[in-house]
Protein 1
Amino acid sequence: MTLDEILKEIKNANSFMITAHENPDGDAIGSCLAFATVLKEMGKEKIDVLLKEYPPIFNTLPNIDLIKSEASLDKYDMAIVLDCPEIKRVSKEYHKYFEDAKITVEFDHHLKNAMFADLDVVNPAAPACAEILVSSFRYMKIEISKDVATCLMAGIITDTGGFRFNSTTRETFEFAGWALAKGVNIPKIYKDYLMTKSKSQFEAEKLALDRLEFLMDDKIVFTYMTKEDEEKLNIQPGEFDGIVGIGITIKGVEVSIFARERSDGFKVSFRSNNIDVADICMLFGGGGHKLAAGCTIDAKLEDVRKAVIEETKKHLK
Ligand code: AMP
Ligand code: MN
Ligand code: MN
């Protein structure tokens, strides 16, 4: 079984690089830090979590100092990629370390995974990559300490929207109960990583909601943010992540769309109550999950708006 091989390789390896998809969210960061903490607790000496930029709210997670933007070795024994369906979605600077590692491993829960590592552990039914790590660590008989459980819980709580999304499983609650008994402060994780926003984030949400338009008998909502807005509001990484989720809470809305201008074009986020938005995003070279997906389109705002709305209309019919 793949996990037996992974455990054998972990035992043989001394240096590790761990990474996730770029613009990492709570699941990406929580999964990376959970894995890094496990390796540290095993006595491994060289562990680099390579992530370029991450939301500063996660600074209170255990072993956050293991996150580095630059590699400290030329070559690692093992590369571990988490919460990422294809190597293309890892920051380009880190591809070299993945390619040069003696062995590569991935754990992921996205719908279409490219099985790009030597050893792949993929389960699209899992609500978070962190939940795959829970069962994997248990299978490998790796102890889940309070610190590891805290990181895993951060991943699970953020990716399930606080146990709200229908991806949430019985195992999710079982692990939450187990973690609580272990001393993990679940209400604090919930509050700090899901319910707290900075003033700039609040202002950004206010602007996006003010611009929100209803289309197709109020079944689609669309809003956007430009680079100019971002500069004015002094936005930190991750502070746009909640916007698309607000639209989908409106009764009757089937699809919520949020387009955000970046250097490589507009990053478009989709949330759905039923139709498969990963399908729509794949048409634009993106992907994700059935009810939460994204893509990047390098075009003018008006063209992006038209293209994504037209495609969503077709899928709704
Ligand atoms: P987000 O809207 O950024 O929260 O992303 C929702 C889901 O879509 C996540 O599973 C992402 O991994 C996926 N996703 C977002 N942007 C892209 C993209 N440009 N290409 C492929 N998948 C994406
Ligand atoms: Mn993620
Ligand atoms: Mn995830």
Note: The CA atoms of residues 172 and 247 lie 26 Å apart.
Protein 2
Amino acid sequence: TVLVVDFGAQYAQLIARRVREARVYSEIVPSTMPVAEMLAKNPAAIILSGGPSSVYAEGAPRLDRALFEAGVPVFGMCYGFQLMATTLGGTVDNTGAREYGRTPLHVSKSGSTLFEGTPDEQSVWMSHGDACSAAPEGFSVTASTDVVPVAAFENDEKRLYGVQYHPEVMHSTHGQQVLEHFLYRGAGLTPNWTTGNVIEEQVAAIREQVGDKRAICGLSGGVDSAVAAALVQKAIGSQLTCVYVDHGLMRKGETEQVEKDFVAATGVQLKVVDAEERFLSALAGVSDPEEKRKIIGREFIRVFEQAQAEIIADAGPEVAFLVQGTLYPDVVESGGGTGTANIKSHHNVGGLPEDLEFKLIEPLRKLFKDEVRMVGQELGLPDEIVQRQPFPGPGLGIRIVGEVTKERLDLLREADAIAREELTAAGLDRDIWQCPVVLLADVRSVGVQGDGRTYGHPIVLRPVSSEDAMTADWSRLPYDVLAKISTRITNEVADVNRVVLDVTSKPPGTIEWE
Ligand code: XMP
């Protein structure tokens, strides 16, 4: 395992993902963890992430020197680099010489482990105020910028390395190569971690954990619950029952997809609960977004619990486990805690009741989203499920601005299906993170369709690109694709006479409208 020490500010997750992309297993630990505890995990290498502090700031995180003296290869990035420099006797000055954004890096490759095979001049992503002016003794300086004399240093004998910039971000053009040089050449690691290992390990662990008891799993139609269920199904077969609550807020064809494709691919036992009417009557007359979310969440838990009770009534008390599609970012964001699942209320409508009587099975706890997709693929799930873009638990209920009714849902389903079809046909599915299609049900606009005046509703297209949904930018879709979607929606969907494009990044806008 490579430990990524998290000094804050979201960099650590990205680094951990990049390490795994290099096929080396990584885990994140907080910088407050004592060094002895880090070393007790027997890490193959340690990476120190960037962070928001200046090494000179009061209360800035520090590191025990022992970390660098344990013989474990270490790679410091940005804040981690400066910390390494100051801890080992180099000089970091608060010169006021800030660098932020894309910066040209001058590399000296002779004898460099990190930069071999990369260009003498490369573009890197900088974000710092302090600058290293002298490397610690025994280190050679292998890169600089116009502003920073020491932008990278290396000590092959001690296997300690550092760079001032952020190799993990895409704007650092050779960042992944430099990271891999550290892992393979500096630390001598072999790239052999695959999602295939994960399946084997998890299947064995789940069999052991469940024994001859039974498990249930709520399917949402999303990637995570589908892959978690498929994995558990592989491990314990008919001891698993899945429950799918059809709340009537799904997109066109999605319920059928779960019923047919998922069952066909996995052979899972599936209980489908048709709860459309129940949800719609609970939502009647409500247009406040938070209110809608609360109602949908509450109804969901009730329906799920009822289904659960029925399964237990049928199968007896040996139903002891609940499968959850918790991912690694959820674990890290909720404090990286061991044991109890900590689920973001906002992101999981099936939020767990406090007095949970089940033990949890969380087979995806160590995985990032893209890895979950790979596992799903290896388990033979169809692309339509595995490559599915994120879709919120409250479904189309939060994509109708205004009251949610069956007629409006049907209308939005049609518009959404057209947008999805055209985006897929244009080969854009992998370029965009997701594309909410929103019905402004409380807004009317005048149009002219056929021979007469219409007074209909606008549909909003909200295509975004993102790496993690925390921040996002609006996708620059080709005009001809937008034109096709617009023409088709206004022609084919009754009562819609206008299609508009949302050109807001996040922040300030969120991805969903509600
Ligand atoms: P926002 O709108 O907060 O969305 O920018 C960020 C991501 O989260 C999804 N989302 C949800 N997912 N339950 C979910 O499972 C929810 O209540 C929920 N609300 C937003 C949204 O689609 C985007 O991917």
Note: Confidence is low (pLDDT under 50) at residues 337-351.
Protein 3
Amino acid sequence: MASHVVGYPRMGPKRELKFALESFWDGKSTAEDLQKVAADLRSSIWKQMADAGIKYIPSNTFSYYDQMLDTTAMLGAVPDRYGFAGGEIGFDTYFSMARGNASVPAMEMTKWFDTNYHFIVPELGPNTKFAYSSHKAVTEYKEAKSLGVDTIPVLIGPVTYLLLSKPAKGVDKSFSLLSLLGSILPIYKEVIAELKAAGASWIQLDEPTLILDLEAHQLEAFTKAYTELESSLSGLDVLIETYFADVPAEAYKTITALNSISGFGFDLVRGTKTLDLIKTGFPSGKYLFAGVVDGRNIWANDLAASISTLEALETAVGKDKLVVSTSCSLMHTAVDLVNETKLDDEIKSWLAFASQKVVEVNALAKALAGSKDEAFFSSNAAAQASRKTSPRVNNAEVQKAAAALKGSEHRRATNVSARLDAQQKKLNLPVLPTTTIGSFPQTVELRRVRREYKANKISEEEYVKAIKEEISKVVKLQEELDIDVLVHGEPERNDMVEYFGEQLSGFAFTVNGWVQSYGSRCVKPPIIYGDVSRPKAMTVFWSSMAQSMTARPMKGMLTGPVTILNWSFVRNDQPRFETCYQIALAIKDEVEDLEAAGIQVIQIDEAALREGLPLRKSEQAFYQDWAVHSFRITNCGVKDTTQIHTHMCYSNFNDIIHSIIDMDADVITIENSRSDEKLLSVFREGVKYGAGIGPGVYDIHSPRIPSTEEIADRINKMLAVLETNILWVNPDCGLKTRKYGEVKPALTNMVAAAKLLRTQL
Ligand code: GLN
Ligand code: ZN
């Protein structure tokens, strides 16, 4: 019984690659320094997997930035603006594509399926010239070999590469990306030939797009591609790897019919239906790479349950053809539990990070082969049992309250236009009211105060004094700027999810549980391990303090349940929606406490609502239903006169506009500054939006200061589509990452633009 790992985190257990990259980019270290750190990381990963006993160890899953960009480099598909003259692509061109340089902006980045990882989107057109321009896959294979490890080189498959590309600027809309298949396959052939010559016996082609809702002609592209590659692949065993969901029946039929393929990898954690497909028919003589160890989460595998799944598969595909694997690359989970010094032993016994998952894969393979590590299995069973019954996980009261939510709509009794009238009587706001999204610049000084308070270096009294001063500064500034609805600036928060997670029961935090988000950027998601409850009020102290400083309305500022859920590692022992409902109830209590404390405007951020949208259409309605329901639960109990705002990041929400309306917030502010047209087109096409709406009037992700005219111009464009009395004027996201030198003039111009337009109405 063999074992396989789809891919491994690149950053290193303590983010070594991040620091090496950033130091190199800053000119503080040389290319050789960076290469050395990278080589050390690769060799320790290979050795670790070899020592653990993994048979199919991946290579070329390392990347200096991103695996899709690596593929673009391999194919030499460098957009013209980077002035690439041919030959082997070096750091200069590579990092210019990833991050831009002094004269050229970076290539676009987008989310890798439904993960929080972002890849660099290839830009292709009919004139793109392809040439074999990065030998990385072959170099890494040889590097591992020289260390005594025979690996399975991993490439992004040709069809997935094209399906995830976009047409370059100026390319005709009718251009089909798949028409480039014939142009890129010759390069794949060259790479494959070199890998073969270097001694590779297996090769892994990642084709995760197979799990999407593909059209017939897209599926045909797989047949075409792998038929054309057949002769170059002969003499080589080829694994087609899929992940993140089950493979639809049509796609399953298409790929299992391919002659040139020896093995198929499926995600059996998220793809529960794949199991039935396999049982009803799997091509004889082919290998099944069964992804039973979850690469997307941090939970220890339920080894006993996996063994029964694997045994059932053994019957279907044959003992010698079953390979135990991970559900996807382990790059989507944290690296090594060994470095967690602050988690207690009980919680640790429930967890497995990448390094531990490698051991699990191997233990499963060995157990199936008849040499079961009894001690390992029994301690795993004990941990599974303790997690099921632990009072830290189970809170009967919370479970009861969440169960009672089912079957109800949780909608505010009065409709939104009547509520807006009632609110306006109290708030008395001008037309085109101005506001901001929540955070103000987080200075070095502010970060130091929080850090020292956390480390018990300053007293609570000193901490409160410092934060109070900061809030007071932010309030005064907003009054000077003449903003209508104020915020307290969020100086007490380092992160909009962590801040709440730390105050809720059922959450745990790691010290090194980083996951790559893009390039050198990593995030450290909280772990939701138990039923969620709110021991005491979380924001009322600061919000009422801020409100006491001004006569203008001060927004209470909360993170919504769906965003907390989507930006955390979530329990796998109950459906996601149940966890979400529990968080919603905790936030509901907070909303009601804020209202009772006299806060009249409460913003509940759902920055990540769109992110949780399932990949497959068949699952989207269900998600939207419970996500939107969770949001409504948080505020269904407030008075008509209490104004509920929400905020969303990303401009890509045209497809969920009906869910947004169904959230029934009084006001929504949305990030849109890079795509006015796209957002406004929804309303132009007749979607009716009766609530308040503030499409961001300038981009806070850039240090650039927008002029009054420019902002006024954009507001005018919005006014052409939206009714005057529902439009709000605000930046497109929080100001946390900006400097005061940018924020002050930008907001000055924003308020001036709103005032200018009020005189013209
Ligand atoms: N209220 C948060 C802030 O202003 C919202 C951040 C976000 O949307 N990502 O920082
Ligand atoms: Zn935002």
Note: The mean pLDDT is 96.
Protein 4
Amino acid sequence: MTEPTTPAIERTLILVKPDGVRRGLTGEILRRVEAKGYTLAAVELQHATPDQLATHYAEHEGKPFYAPLVEFMLSGPTLAVIAEGQGVIAGFRSLAGATDPTAAAPGTIRGDMARDWGLKVQQNLVHGSDSPESAEREIAIWFPGR
Ligand code: UDP
């Protein structure tokens, strides 16, 4: 039998998207991150620029939801966060739940607090990096020099 491995200490980029800021959910979302035992290393309210979003969402350029996604992300301020902890990258994505808020399980941020508003883009409250490489790439976009 192999011993369970301890997840590495990592950092991740979390965004509370404009719907979460508008709906006053930043406190509840950060509370869940901290309650899980992750550490907040940076928290800053930012109004994203088109250049920042083009880089952040480069992998989605050309997809049908790309233009409405960028428009949504420009519609108000975003709370940008660096969170740290063992296994925080997968751990935060587990806290966030499935991309589609209708499919997201109860107990997750999206499952508990987001729903399908019938809009062209999923307004699903949060973003979380999906790998160590994405985390470093995205942290450099939102927190240059960190
Ligand atoms: N998105 C959407 N429709 C889709 C797929 C994605 O509106 O069919 C939006 C949604 O806001 C999502 C973001 O694009 O959070 C980025 O998509 P990704 O597949 O990276 O999902 P995530 O990693 O955020 O769960």
Note: The chain has a mean pLDDT of 97.
